[in-house]
Structure formats: structure tokens, C-alpha cells
Design a protein that fits this description.
By secondary structure, this protein is an alpha+beta fold. It is built from ten helices and eight strands. The protein has a four-stranded mixed β-sheet, covered by helices on one side.
Length: 379
């Protein structure tokens, strides 16, 4: 793993940062599809997808870099975590040739989006309790179940749904992935009323015997968790990028304010009570970025097990660093930190999402204590 970023990556950072800074900031209720399409034209949205299918031929390393810089400029695109990272990766690795031809060029050029549905009302973090099931009916599949907290279903052309099918050898249920078109009969969505400032809305899904053709199944029916985790590692890495970008944006606003705000003859940033917490926030964001880069490198190298550990650690570190950076930024501005003018207040809620989703920090600590440290499970 290179410890120093390449000149190519530095140039990509600068280009994305300039592009995102010069685009109007997206706010609640703002349609950011124009920004998405412009980013796609420049090759940013599909930078991780194979060149043979219209992508940039890079990996999660490049895609996470793009999202981080967009976030640092105050213009993050949440659906980058879902459409090119999770869904694009899964289809690239496990999709049929027909699925790759149909979806990858469209995901890369921004003309189509895909959502991802895994979380269920009664399953929470326990993916083994997923009750959405797929059963064969002639040459088709019938998909039945519920999903919650699914981002961007209203703007997505299809949703990659995690269901379970019965293993003919053992009789046990195993996870499988299905592409469900947004207009499929029996596929219903209901918006969830969130106390969160975000362009992308959250939805509850109901799948009532949704009939799908045989080719809606992505990959091998018997691959199970392998295919699922191929999408979850990029999800965690990209969530880390989202959090780091958000933290950097908040920190930059606070530093600018601390340089200019004069109360006792000198800028408030001259006082260590202001300067040191901001410096600590910067250190923790940079440390989280290093772990994110390690996770992305392992993911792109095909080391799913190593990437799983690093991706979880990166997501944990980035979530903690983001919350601390946002909190300190708001505190630095005092009352101004809660005004609409400075735009930091909405980040208070948004930053906490990086601690909760797509997996809570407590489940990450469980993962590290069990998988890395070898400690016994309590569940």
C-alpha cells in the first residue's frame, strides 16, 4: 500500500475539489441530479467501474477520494455510496454479461441510478434474521418482504434487494441479490419522515410477491455471503469518505472563522482553548483517512477479508472524527454555529448518521473484538 498519494490522485483531488466548490451547494429539497450528471460527464461517478463498460477503470480508492472531496466542498452525493460503489461493484464482480452491459455503462454515465435494500424492521444489524424471501415459481422468482431506510428509491431506476432463498442441500436460507425495477408490480415504497437535512430521502419498501424473471438474480445463487460482503466493504469505505469530507468541511469553516473573529484584540484562533481542539479534530480526520485508504487499497486488491477488517475500522474512525469535528466547529462559532447563514447546524444531525449507518459503531466494535482479537461472542 503506498503511503504517499500519487501525483495522479493528487490531481484528481484538485480537479474534484474545484468542480464541487464551483457548483451551487445542495440543500434540503434541492434537486441535485444536475450536479450528479455533470460529475458523471467528467468521469467522477463511474471512476471505479470497468473501462470496458464505460467506467474509469479505477477502484474504490478513486471513488472514495471523489466523494471525500465533494463532501469537503460542502457538496456530497450520498447516492455515490449506493449506486456505483455497492451496486456497481456487485454487478461488476458477479453480474452476468447481460447485466453488466445493461447497468454498468448507465451507472457510469449517470443516466441511471440503483438503490440498495438490506435493512429490515425486525432484523436491525442481524443480517441472519432477514425475512425477505425469494421462491421459485416456474422460471420466475417471487420476492416477498419489507425493507427500511433505503436511500433514494424515488430517483433510482431499480433497487438491489437482499433476499434469502432456500438451499436445496441443507434446507437453510441463504442470502441472494435481486435487481428489482422501480415499476415492478407489488413493489411499493413509503417515505420515512426523517429529522435529517438531506437531499436524498429514506424509504420503507414492501415487496408483495414481486414477480421477477430468472435473470433478475445477480451472480450465483450459491455464492451467498461472498457476494453480499463484496458490496458491504465498499459501502463502509464510502461512508468513511462521506464522514471525512463532512468533517473537513465543518473544520474548514471553523478555522476560517477562528482566524477572522476578534473578541479580545486577537483572533480567537490564537487562544489554545480554541486552537487545540481544532488541531485535534484535524489529526483525527487525517488518521481516519489513512485507515480508509488502507481499506480501499485492500478492497481494490481483492482481499475481501483484510478489507472487511480495515473497512469497519475506517468507518468507525471516520464517524467518530466527523462527529467531533462538527461539534467543535459549531462550538467555535458559538451562536453563529446554529444559524442558517453559516450552514453548520444541519451537520449536527448528519454527522451522527456516520456513527449509526450502515452499521453502528457498537457492531463494529463487536466485529473487531471477535474477528481481530479473538474474543468470545455474547450473542
Amino acid at each position: 500500500m503506498p503511503l504517499i498519494e500519487s501525483e495522479e490522485h493528487k490531481a484528481l483531488r484538485e480537479a474534484v475539489a474545484s468542480f464541487a466548490r464551483n457548483h451551487p451547494r445542495t440543500t434540503t429539497g434541492t434537486d441535485n441530479r444536475h450536479f450528479w450528471q455533470e460529475a458523471a460527464k467528467l468521469g467522477y461517478i463511474g471512476v471505479n467501474l470497468p473501462e470496458a463498460y464505460g467506467g474509469g477503470g479505477g477502484g474504490i480508492t478513486e471513488l472514495s477520494l471523489v466523494l471525500e472531496e465533494m463532501g469537503a466542498a460542502g457538496n456530497p452525493l450520498l447516492m455515490m455510496i449506493v449506486s456505483p460503489a455497492i451496486c456497481g461493484t456487485v454487478i461488476s464482480r458477479f453480474g452476468t454479461e447481460a447485466q453488466k452491459r445493461e447497468w454498468l455503462p448507465a451507472l457510469a454515465d449517470g443516466s441511471r441510478l440503483m438503490a440498495f435494500g438490506i435493512t429490515e424492521p425486525d432484523a436491525g444489524s442481524n443480517s441472519h434474521r432477514i425475512t425477505t424471501t425469494a421462491r421459485r415459481d416456474g422460471g420466475d422468482w417471487l420476492l416477498t418482504g419489507r425493507k427500511v431506510f433505503v436511500s433514494g428509491v424515488d430517483i433510482a431506476d431499480a433497487t438491489l434487494i437482499v433476499g434469502r432463498t432456500e438451499d436445496a442441500r441443507t434446507g437453510k436460507l441463504k442470502p441472494c441479490l435481486f435487481i428489482v425495477p422501480r415499476d415492478a408490480e407489488g413493489f411499493q415504497r413509503r417515505p420515512i419522515d426523517m429529522e435529517l437535512t438531506s437531499v436524498e430521502k429514506q424509504f420503507e419498501l414492501v415487496l408483495d410477491d414481486v414477480r421477477l424473471p430468472a435473470d433478475a438474480l445477480v451472480g450465483d445463487e450459491d455464492a451467498g455471503l461472498l457476494q453480499l460482503f463484496a458490496g458491504l466493504n465498499p459501502e463502509r469505505i464510502m461512508t468513511a469518505a462521506f464522514a471525512i469530507g463532512m468533517g473537513r468541511h465543518a473544520l474548514a469553516r471553523a478555522v476560517e472563522y477562528a482566524r477572522e473573529r476578534i473578541v479580545w484584540k486577537v483572533p480567537i484562533g490564537a487562544h489554545q482553548a480554541i486552537a487545540h481542539p481544532l488541531a485535534q479534530a484535524h489529526i483525527e480526520l487525517e488518521t481516519a483517512r489513512l485507515m480508509m485508504q488502507k481499506a480501499a487499497h485492500l478492497c481494490d486488491a481483492g482481499d475481501d477479508i483484510g478489507a472487511g477488517e480495515a473497512a469497519n475500522m475506517a468507518k468507525y474512525a471516520a464517524g467518530e472524527a466527523c462527529v467531533k469535528a462538527v461539534d467543535q466547529a459549531v462550538h467555535t462559532l458559538g451562536g453563529n454555529g446554529l444559524t442558517r447563514e453559516y450552514g453548520l447546524a444541519p451537520l449536527i444531525t448528519a454527522a451522527r448518521v456516520s456513527r449509526i449507518a450502515p452499521v453502528s459503531r457498537e457492531m463494529i466494535l463487536n466485529y473487531v473484538s471477535h474477528q481481530t482479537l479473538g474474543l468470545p461472542k455474547s450473542y
